[in-house]
Amino acid sequence: MSHHMYILGINFSSHDTSACLVRDGELVAFIEEERLTRIKHTSAFPERAIAKILADAHITLKDIDYIALPTTHAMPIGTVLSFHMSFGIRNFIPLLMKHVRYRFKFYRALRRFQSRVDKKKTKIVFVEHHMSHMANAFLVSPFQKAAIFTVDNNGDGLSSRLGVGEGNTITTLRTFPISESIGNVYYLTTQFLGFSEEGGEGKVMGLSSYGDPETFIHVFRDMVRLRDDGSYTLNKSYFSAIPKGLLNCDVQLSELFIHQVGPARKHSEPLTQVHYDIAAALQKITEETIVHVLKHLHARTQLDTLVLAGGVTLNSVMNGKLHRLTPFKEIFIQPLSYDGGNAIGASFYVWNVLLGNTKRFQFTSCYLGPAFSTEQIRAELQEMKLPFEEVDDPSSCAADLIANGKIIGWFQGRMEAGARALGNRSILANPRMAEMKDIVNAYVKHREPFRPFAPAILVERVGAYFDDTLPVPFMERVFDVRKERRADIPAVTHVDGTGRLQTVSQEQNPRFYKLIQAFEQRTGVPVVLNTSFNIRGEPIVCTPADAIRCFYSTGMDALILDRFLLKK
């Protein structure tokens, strides 16, 4: 039996814990732990994800050659101490204790896991957090040479790294410490606006479209100061440490900020124009800062190709502008750019950089999770004694239902990884009906009325509906909807005339492509409304049972699981 080289990547040094498997330099699986435990953004050790990945590959831990962990073994303590010191000596100990408790939890989980690994055969490799982001951006990109930019709130003492990738090497040009973090500015303002749950930044991005950035941009430009050398610095008087007991401390925006914009919003309070304007200014300063850094990176590297990763690059509104606002011609944005995706980055760092393999894997699909066979699904439906019918052509059946104004659950093939449903675990509806946005938000997703939905469009038709024609296979960018088309697809056109689109190609997802084609034949519009198959506060559904439970607890009209149709 020929031996394969297996690398298991595990992210558990932060939220969004996950695992992935690389076999002979190919990414074969990736699962977020939240999908299996049903606890969104979990930071629990990814026990179930690892077990599922190994079982599906028909291997055990004994077969693994390398385990890649996207964190340094020892925290760069100098960076962390200087950051904590900036909040004054009184808050130093509580901030440090919070930090120590967090690391202690990490080491305890690591030790438990290490005891199950064959230490003679399996090597455990630590890859620094932002180096994992860099590897996740560059080593799976379509480019042989590119400028690299990673940016998030913080990780291993850094908030950002700039560099260059060539072949299987990555060179760092510059790092930004956690004390200079545009990601942290976004995070703290998100909390100030009353969205304190994990992932609230995406909501604030949606909110920003309702505001006027000019109202408060002067405040944020005083907080985030751009420097001539392509860096920026944060005005520390905008941040304060708030003690929570003797051994805990939180950082938040200070009285100076409140004095200029008004009090923080409690989660239960209504949103007002002031909140919209704060969100708009925050979005604008983030874009200005990132563009400022990228212009200097371009001047320094003289490269036209750019790759991006890190949590801040989940900001699809910003992403959609970068090809226009920076000199870079071709940009690859890793769709799994958040911490969960670092399991992939650390694995390819081991494969390409440490082991020196020149063969490069290209990331072209997010369909990396579990799949369920037609037989498995049929057996599950029979066991639950649910009425269903088997349809010959699920795509046409779905198109009929959607064209008739029905909201459907669509469950096919392998579960997609990342924050966006890309047509395998999706809720679909008719984008032509203006009221559909409010109906889906209120009765199906149970979420805030200001949150937009995505247009999934046939890739060949992008230019007919959007001002840009770039493919957006992972729903990673927001573009302007053409003015003359906005009335045709009102349910997926945001208040500012934009849409966070997904371009769908035949090779990427044949069944979903066929569905949108069939919808176009019935309506003349090659677009469907696509949102993730879950309700607010829950992760995207993984199993048929998850999908059935979600279907019966919401206002969906029909569910198509593989080729089985369930109706209410």
Structure in words:
This protein has 568 residues and is an alpha/beta fold. Helix content is 35%, strand content 21%. A hairpin with a 2-residue loop joins strand 23 and strand 24. The longest helix has 29 residues. The N and C termini lie far apart (51 Å).
Low-confidence blocks of residues: none
Find the structural class using helix and strand composition. alpha/beta
Strand content: 15-25%
Report Rg: 23 Å
Number of strands: 24
Gist of the model:
The chain has 568 residues and is an alpha/beta fold. It has 19 helices and 24 strands.
List keywords for this structure.
35% helix, eight-stranded mixed β-sheet, 19 helices, globular, five-stranded mixed β-sheet, 568 residues, alpha/beta, single chain
Blueprint of the fold:
Layout: E1 6-11, E2 18-23, E3 26-32, H1 33-37, H2 47-56, E4 66-69, H3 77-85, H4 89-114, E5 123-126, H5 129-138, E6 145-155, E7 158-166, E8 169-177, H6 182-192, H7 200-208, H8 217-223, E9 224-226, E10 232-234, E11 239-243, E12 249-253, H9 255-261, H10 273-301, E13 305-309, H11 316-319, H12 322-325, E14 330-333, H13 342-354, H14 374-383, E15 389-390, H15 394-403, E16 408-411, E17 425-429, H16 436-445, E18 454-458, H17 462-465, E19 478-480, E20 498-500, E21 502-504, H18 510-523, E22 527-532, H19 544-552, E23 558-561, E24 564-567
Parallel strand pairs: 1-4, 4-5, 6-13, 13-14, 16-23, 18-21
Antiparallel strand pairs: 1-2, 2-3, 6-7, 7-8, 9-10, 11-12, 15-24, 16-17, 17-22, 18-22, 19-20, 23-24
Helix pairs in contact: 3-4, 5-13, 6-10, 7-10, 15-18
